[in-house]
Amino acid sequence: MARLREQYESKIRRELKKELAIDNDLAAPRITKIKVNAGIGKRLQENPKLLDTVLEDIAAITGQRPVKTLAKKSIAAFKIREGQVVGAAVTLRGRRMYEFLDKLINATFPRIRDFRGYSRKSFDGRGNYTVGLKEHMVFPELAARESSQNFGIEIVIATSAADDESGYRLLKKFGFPFND
Description:
This protein is of the alpha+beta class. The protein has helices at 3-20, 43-46, 50-62, 94-108, 164-174; strands at 31-39, 67-70, 85-92, 129-133, 153-159.
């Protein structure tokens, strides 16, 4: 079992129930899924091989094969046509989700240059948190690899929390680096 999952089940859930005055174990907030996205729409026209690099790198980072995301409609200003590949995405659940979160908090964030923590403003109003990374090369799996292609990644941590405060407390218990 993943280290963070054991920690949640043995310690964090109990503490959250007490703090939030919740009676039922199943009503305590928990992480439901983590979604990892990379959008490469305009850059794909300049370098068609970028898609292969993005798919390989996201698979190495998450341990799961990504799906190609397609444009839903044509946008002439961006030279994008309906059905054209514009990115890649992975949805993590269960064991892989907890292992990815552990690696993100304990190995990836400390590798970011001039890192001071993340703002609480990135919650969406329902307890879900979004993090954007400008460079995907901060992940330890890609450190040894030489890559001339650099792209950004968006990570969405979806929780079962009813509001932002509950989601904040949950992520804080996991050790998420907020700049309070």
